[in-house]
Every structure is written in C-alpha cells, then in structure tokens.
Protein: Amino acid transporter transmembrane domain-containing protein
Amino acid sequence: MKSFDTVHNPSVVESGDTTRNNFDDDGREKRTGTMLTASAHIITAVVGSGVLSLAWSVAQLGWVAGIVILVTFAVINYYTSTMLADCYRSDTGTRNCTYMDVVRTYLGGWKVQLCGLAQYGCFIGITIGYTITASISLVAIGKTNCFHDKGHGAKCSVSNYPFMAAFGIVQTMLSQIPNFHKLSFLSIIATVMSFSYASIGIGLAIAVVASGKVGKTGATGTVVGLDVTASEKIWKAFQAAGDIAFSYSYSSILVEIQACILSFIDDTLRSSPPENKVMKKATLAGISTTTVFYVLCGCMGYAAFGNTAPGDFLTDFGFYEPFWLIDIANACIVLHLIAAYQVFAQPVFQFVESKCIKAWPEKNFITKEHSMNIPLLGKWRINFFRLVWRTAYVIMTTIVAVIFPFFNSMLGLIGAATFWPLTVYFPVEMHISQRKVQKYSMRWNALKLLVFVCLIVSLLAAIGSIVGLINNVRAYKPFHS
Structure:
C-alpha cells in the first residue's frame, strides 16, 4: 500500500482518477460511500438523546426564543459544516482524515492540541451522557409497568445503578470486538431506533394536544414567580441553550465521516464526485431532516406539557399510557444508545491505541494479537492492551455516570463546552486561512462577529449548566432510588 501522506496532483485527486481497483487516490482502501450513506451517518450522529430534552428546553425559553434558537443552531451548524467539508482536502490535494489533521494543516501549533482536547472530551462526555440516558430509559420501563399495574399515584421506586452496570457490561463486551467497522449494521440500528423513539414521542405529544388537556404555554416560557424564581429563569434558560447545542453535536465527527477511516464507518465517501460537494449535500439533507424532528419534538412537547414540560419527555412521565408504547420507545432509546456509545467511543479507543503503538512498538503486550477459540463465536483475536484499556475506559465512564446521573445538566455542559470550538471557532478560522480572507474586510469582520457571539452564548450555557449541576448535586442522595 502506498504511503498515507503521498501527495498527488490536485486535479487527479478531485476527479478521483486512480489506476487501482482496490485503493483510492492516496493508497487507502477504496471508498464506496454516497450522499445517501453519508446522510444516514449524519442523522445517526445528530439524532441522539439530546432530542429528549428539547420540550424542556423550549419551555425554559418560550415559543419565540425556543424556536429561534433551534433554527439558528441548525443554520450555524450547516454553515460551518460546509466550511469544514471544504477543508477536508489540503491545498496539495491530500486528504485530512481526522479533525485534528485538518486543524494541523490549516492552523497548526497549540490549536491542534486544543482541538484534540475539545473533540475527544466531547466524545468522552457523550459516552457518559449515553450511559446515564440508557439507565434512565431502563428505569422508565420498570416504572411504566408499575404505574400501569398499581396506578399513577403509586410509589414505584427503581434504582438506576444496576442498569448502569448492565449497560457498562454490554459496552465492555462490544468494545473488545476487533475491526468494529465491519459491523455496518450498527449505524442502521441506531438510525432506525432514533427515528422510532422520536416519532413515538412526537405522536404521543400530538395525541395529548388533540385531547385538549394541555399545559400552559407562553411566548417567553416559564413564568417568574409562578413556575420558577428570577434566578432559576436565567440559569435554566442558559442551560436550555446548552441542551440545544448538545443536540447538534455533529461537527465533532464530520471529518471522520467524510474521511471514513475511523472504525465505525464502513462505506466511506468515494472521491468522485469531489467529497466536499457530496458532503455539503449530505449535510444539508441530514441537518434539515433532524431539524424538522427537533422542532416537532420541542414544539409539540411544549404544546402538550406547557411550562411544566419534563426534562426527558419519555422517561419523566409526561406520558403514562399506552404503557406498552412508552416501553417500546424507551427500549428503542436503549438499543440506539448501545450502538451510539460505540460510534463515539471507537475514535477514543483508536486514538489512544495508535499513540501507544507508535510510542512502544516493541511491546508485545501492546502490539501482539492472540487467537482464541470462543464458544459460539469461533476464533477471536485478543489483544491484551486493548482488553485492559477499553475495559478501563468503560468502567471509568460508568463510574462518572453513577456519580453524576443528571440528564439535563450533563447534556447542557457537554454541549456548551464543545459547540463553540468544534462547530464554530475551528471551521471559521480554517475557512479564513484556506480562502485567505482579507483581515478587517467585511467578510472577515462578519465571521469574527459570529465566532464572538457564539462564544458568549456557549459561556452563558456552560454557566447555566454548571449552576444546574451544582443544584442537582446538593439535592442528590447517592445510591438511593
């Protein structure tokens, strides 16, 4: 195989003209992805547990600000994603296969480390958030059945700690699978499940609205003195913005989808037609589709529950019946998150493993593969370092989830911490560098203003989420149901 960093003629690269049948223009395995498959990966990455908190978020912000922020985040995400897609190829035509590679090519220096910190911090945070959400959904299934049998006023107490442990055990086993990218059905499962539970939630909300038994809504959301105090109104509004930002946490993984060398993507974008054009179309299709779902979930959920909308409208019992449909929705959430956890964990696994292999290539513990016969599975390749490291990672994320099992606050904090650097700052700065935008020109000033405004929004969202997290910790009784 040719070197990964071989430089080719840009015109040849863009056209995808290559003489090899099995390899692409830079010696990597030939890519076969299309706009359709890229759109599916985008939808899988975007539609996640964040959709469950959107009704609560709109309730904190109200009809006007809630819808405006939902749509604005979508527009900003699409706009900066097109910039990021253009940066996939360097000026010499070589492919940048990770987000850090792109930043290294166009910005360099300490910004590469900042990008890595933000991106992998985002991935780690998402896996923690998914552990919390999956356990909450499993608890909800138990409570739903209890309420159905004993009545809505019954004391149905179910601990989420055993479910967190069970989720961790499942992820430990899945994490040991070598060549995880061969399991292409994973993204299909995640996509189907995410659309299923989002659709069920929207349908249940529409049914409540149709029944006429709806909560009180307003242009500005929760009412000071009635629903919340003045300080709660401010902090919860900021936290809601963070939750919405989390729900659009897609840019962190855009380059990897486009390059598709990471293990969770199998059918990668082929180089003809040019990847940036295909990726822009896929991004438009993916973000448009998810935005429609988000607006429906947020608005219909708010219309149904009003200012008392629950933090998670499928697990906080805004709905009690039909209990079997709510069970199906929560089961879909769990199945989606089992798959989605690996989507975001695999880049972390591979990053650490590649660094360790490079640093200690002579260590058999790190590099050697052992073949073992496992009943029902046949021959299995075991690497002791992979076994220890990946197991430790899953244990770590599970422990953090046990310590801080706070759905909305965790989502808001992760969204606030990663939205600005990964979705706004780096794409804009690389666009300015790539297109050589003249300093202090009208376009340069407009782009810098966008970066500054989004920074302020992210900081406020982070503060709101931290305040919410502190309040949750104060009232939290560890190891109680």
The chain has one domain: 25-475.
